[in-house]
Amino acid sequence: MAQTQLKSQTGDVRDWPFDVKPLHPVLGCEITGITLEQAVSPNLFAKVYEAFLDYEVILFRDVDLPPATQVAFARNFGEVQIHVLSEQYGYAGHPEIYMLSNLDKDGNPSGKHPDKGTLYWHTDGSWRERTGQATMMYSEIVPPVGGETEFADMYSAYELLPAAMKAKIDGRRAVHNLDFSRTRRHGEGLLTATQKSEVPPVAHPIVRTHPDTGRKAIFLGDHAESIEGMDYDEGRALIEELNVMITPPARVYSHRWSPRECIVWDNRCTLHRATGFDEARLKRVMRRCTINGDRPF
Ligand SMILES: [Fe+2]
Description:
The protein is an alpha+beta fold. The chain is built from nine helices and 18 strands.
């Protein structure tokens, strides 16, 4: 196995028994030289987790990842979430898996996007008290055009904000609400009264501290509805403004999927979104597991 020695953003020397190839100048790397199975093994996982913290998005190509294995691998990162919408999106026998598929029961493109909310910048599970730590996504079938996943780094998004904006949001909390974002983006498949009661709106700091790296990152995205202590419309306008400011195209990595790829991203310091595709003619089947993290601080 190759030895990779390089310096992390915090200046620590990294000595990894695998290779990393950056995917973009800002974030993301491909890990090679080890399999995903080796990556989650007890003797390597701590090193892989370092790479995950340094690069925020890690990619493994050509992975054989049956659903049960995906759940087992995801558990190395922590407790795997069972989504409030698992009845609609779960995988038979594996409620921890959230399926994103546009296929009908005969396996043909249905013309319906499985989850329109994924088309807007967000971070997984920000509408929960304990928000998403990591998400592990696997590509089964990908369209030849469209259906990319884009990632934006929220550490530099914070660092690059004008001082006046930093002062404006310092100490502020945004209220995240799945019912809000889903109603706004879908217009169908809305939450039932029971589901709504399971995921009431929850406030999180707009500038959070990453619990592992200690670095500050913006924590916002499409589930953020309002800002505590601020007029609703004023808060909405500020959230919209910030969501654009923190995702400039030049600082975004857009991943063009091939089948059998596995990406794990850090929901605590990134935003992501999917790009659209022709749901009536092309097939896209992805499955993901989200790992529960801490309450942001
Ligand atoms: Fe997502």
